[in-house]
Design a protein that fits this description.
The chain is α+β, with helices and mostly antiparallel strands. The protein folds into two domains: 53 residues, Arc Repressor Mutant, subunit A, CATH 1.10.10; 70 residues, no CATH class. Strand 1 and strand 2 form a beta hairpin.
Length: 130
């Protein structure tokens, strides 16, 4: 599956898992009939591979699972919690819900930024590598 993902990337086609579904982003005309058939045939495997590359496993495959994980990781840290220079978390519950929604439903850049913030907090090692 990784080689198929790389092949699609080389053709300007990006894949993302949002809310448990595989989402395809491509320029007009990039999705040939052959590629559409490959995506249709292998969508479940591709989604599984993409989730694995994010490190999202088990309970964290849902927004609520990720919220619970973030809250569990941050609950004992004193507030505010620095997430990058100039930004800090003052309400763990609001932060956890916001980041989890962004990871699952945000566009590529927003989701990547959310993953980076979670990595900075030390949550990435087990849950969101990449």
């Amino acid at each position: 599956m990784e080689s198929l993902i790389e092949r699609l990337k080389a053709q300007g086609i990006t894949l993302q898992v949002q809310g448990g579904s595989l989402r395809v982003h491509a320029a007009v005309g990039a999705l040939t009939p052959e590629i559409r058939e490959l995506l249709r045939t292998h969508s479940a495997d591709l989604a599984r591979e993409l989730r694995g590359s994010d490190g999202l496993e088990g309970e964290a495959l849902t927004v609520q699972g990720l919220v619970d994980l973030i809250q569990g990781e941050l609950k004992d840290r004193p507030l505010p919690i620095a997430i990058r220079p100039g930004e800090s978390v003052v309400d763990v519950g609001v932060y956890a819900r916001s980041e989890a929604r962004t990871v699952f439903r945000g566009c590529g850049l927003a989701a990547g930024a959310a993953r980076a913030r979670l990595w900075y907090l030390g949550i990435a090692g087990r849950t969101l590598e990449g």
